[in-house]
UniProtKB/TrEMBL annotation:
InterPro entries (alphabetical): Mce/MlaD, MlaD_Phospholipid_Transporter
Span of domain Mce/MlaD: 57-131
Record-given protein name: MlaD family protein
Provenance organism: Actinomycetospora endophytica
Region Disordered: start-end pairs: 402-432
Superkingdom of the source species: Bacteria
Length: 432
């Protein structure tokens, strides 16, 4: 009761003070707004409340640009936020970062962490690859550490520029300063320039393709060399034998240095002979060119000649077929004539002095033989009654060798033989 009376007395007093109620309401509203704003801000800063369950893992980086302890910077796995950076401590060889992860995200000893930035203004976050078996799982009580060999950091632009010399940095600064003036008319001129760049890049595309092919070839060569090196490393015994054989060969060459010198001294003479031989070959080439030209000219006339020869051989085929039985029957006769031919060869040697006088004697004894030649012209046989043109007349000619005039008589005309018929010879012939 006493307490209730005190509250009633205080309320009456507040009501009796002018403006006190309004002030109290204003203060209450401001306190509520402050609490709401604080809660909203703290929610965006990802504040870790003491009663929340967290898993703590540490990471070592060579440098940590933009890292802020308790700044609510994110830790992501596959692009999804799974924790925050709770601390960043500088060390002699880099920065050790402590991260708080949500439960259910185990990290293994083969994990890898990348320090990246959301914007060019160094708003960093950590992209974590948690790894997996067979590596052991890291402790989540803060004792597990991912070493610097398994982390990569964000490279700052000034670090790239610091590798340039003074003149290049000055030229780059001047380029940035003059870019405002140079890009003043860019809406009108830049599209055409970009089209020109496109044409230039299309022109350079074959070169890029060739460079890509060359890169692949070099990669294949390096791979082959690696395989050769690996094979050679595994064959230590064979490689040692090869080195020993090389040493023996070099020793033998050293012992025969004088002989090698004599051989080298003979090389100039060999070069002169080779030069002379090449000159002869050049001359032969000059003589061979006309021959090849003649062969080329003959090649034009050779096909018609071969065609005619083919027709001739086709016509000669029946003749050869018809002559085959005659040749078969004549073979035994020729075999029987072989002894006679050997005897006739010796007889002909004896008759050789006499045959030299026969042309003159024949001209004196039978001057009418040219007339007889016309009589038997184009006949297939002197004793045949027909030739290729058909039948012809038959005549009997008597030749009197004792008559100086030749004694040519034609029995068909009824001429009677003269004296000396014993010496006559009878010959039957024909002509066209």
């Amino acid at each position: 009761m006493t307490r209730t009376r005190k509250l009633a007395a205080s309320w009456d007093r507040m009501r009796n003070i002018p403006g006190l109620g309004r002030n109290l309401v204003t203060v209450a509203v401001l306190v509520a707004l402050g609490i709401g704003s604080s809660a909203y801000i703290l929610s965006n800063y990802s504040v870790s409340w003491p009663w929340q369950a967290r898993e703590v893992v540490q990471m070592d980086f060579s440098k940590g640009p933009g890292l802020v302890a308790d700044g609510g910077q994110e830790v992501r796995i596959a692009g999804v936020k799974v924790g925050t950076i709770s601390a960043a401590t500088a060390q002699t060889d880099g920065v050790r970062v402590t991260v708080d992860l949500d439960p259910g995200h185990p990290v293994y000893a083969n994990a890898h962490a990348d320090l990246k930035s959301k914007t060019p203004l160094n708003d960093p976050y950590i992209s974590l690859e948690p790894g997996g078996s067979p590596a052991p799982e890291l402790a989540t009580d803060g004792s597990g550490v991912i070493p610097a060999s398994q982390t990569t950091r964000l490279i700052q632009p000034f670090e790239v520029l610091n590798n340039l010399d003074t003149r290049t940095r000055e030229a780059l600064t001047s380029l940035v300063d003059e870019a405002d003036v140079g890009l003043k008319d860019s809406p009108q001129q830049l599209p055409g320039s970009l089209h020109s760049v496109t044409d230039a890049l299309n022109t350079l595309k074959p070169v890029a393709d060739q460079l890509q092919t060359r890169r692949q070839t070099i990669q294949t060569l390096v791979t082959d060399l690696s395989e050769i090196s690996t094979a050679a490393g595994r064959n230590d015994g064979r490689l040692a034998g090869l080195v020993a054989s090389l040493q023996t060969t070099l020793s033998t060459l050293a012992n025969r240095d004088d002989q090698l010198g004599d051989t080298l001294n003979q090389l100039p003479g060999l070069g002169d002979d080779l030069r002379h031989a090449l000159g002869s070959v050049n001359t032969l080439t000059g003589q061979l060119d006309p021959t090849l030209d003649d062969l080329e000219n003959a090649s034009d006339a050779l096909p018609p000649a071969l065609s005619k020869l083919t027709d001739t051989l086709q016509d000669a085929g029946p003749v050869v077929d018809a002559a085959r039985p005659v040749v078969a029957k004549a073979r035994p006769v020729v075999g029987d004539l072989r002894p006679l031919v050997s005897d006739a060869h010796a007889a002909l040697d004896d008759l050789k002095p006499t045959t030299g006088l026969l042309p003159n004697a024949t001209a004196q004894v039978a001057p009418w033989l040219p007339n007889l030649q016309a009589f038997i012209f184009q006949t297939s046989s002197a004793f045949s009654l027909q030739d290729a043109n058909g039948g012809y007349g038959r005549a009997q000619v008597f030749i009197d060798a004792s008559n100086p005039a030749g004694g040519l008589q034609n029995e068909g005309k009824g001429t009677s033989p003269g004296p000396g018929d014993e010496a006559r010879t009878k010959k039957t012939g024909g002509g066209n």
